[in-house]
Amino acid sequence: MTTENTGRTAIVTGAARGIGAGIATRLAADGLAVAVLDLDEAACTTVVEKIEADGGRGLAVGVDVADEVAVTAAVERVADELGEPTVLVNNAGIIRDNLLFKMSVEDWDAVMGVHLRGSFLMSRAVQAYMTKAGWGRIVNLSSTSALGNRGQANYAAAKAGLQGFTKTLALELGRFGVTANAIAPGFIETEMTKATAARVGVPFDDFKDAAVKEIPVGRVGLPADIAHAVSFFASEGAGFVSGQVLYVAGGPKA
Ligand code: NAP
Predict the structure, then answer these.
(1) Among 4, 23, 64, 227, which has the highest number of CB atoms less than 10 A from its own CB?
(2) Which domains does the chain have, with CATH numbers?
């Protein structure tokens, strides 16, 4: 375990599994206390137990990031029980894919709610602690889908929106010592990509093989690949890097 960042508290949303779980355990290994937030609090305990087994500090918190009242309560609880948060990773996400002509208003709103409203509510709640501390790091999970992806009008719009949101937070919060950056992953092996394969009726191994053909480094990504980039943006030394979008996709994008 490194000692850099020791004493700081991070919040990672959607951290019960997948990329969020990878980010939470990585930030804990970097020396931060980590609040593991997800819809189902019980589902967060496995990640917290792993953090604690490795000698770190973690806290499981159940919250719907799109619920304003719940977000306020969750962030206050983190501040009370773990420490005032100065690192926030907005990772919670859902997909509700469909071609535009078949996309329901409910599926549009659900995706906007988790990604955009959720990142807004979480960032607004946590910035109070960051500006008070004169130090903060916000990392938002965008996607290569922000560049456009068939069947993902809602998701692509939300992930592109998060890039504009990130750049605006960088402008507003920079003078308080707070940076805001976005990571845009390509194909990462998680339940989300498994669900996409299931939706299009392709066995996951075949789905991955097809994806790998388009990825210059010749493999799909893992949660640890994204966690490594988050670790950099959250680090003490990254204070002059703000408003950036880093494509972590095994090759060049945008
Ligand atoms: P995942 O395995 O589906 O995990 C997402 C987590 O977010 C789940 O635990 C989910 O909980 C939680 N969540 C959903 N709605 C929530 C809400 N309203 N409040 C709190 N938590 C909520 O997805 P992933 O692949 O790890 O993706 C993580 C992030 O990376 C997402 O923002 C995604 O869009 C982005 N991303 C992923 C990829 C990829 O290839 N996997 C590529 C680019 C970007 P439930 O299980 O209870 O729904």
Answers:
(1) 23
(2) 9-186+223-248 (3.40.50.720), 187-220 (no CATH)
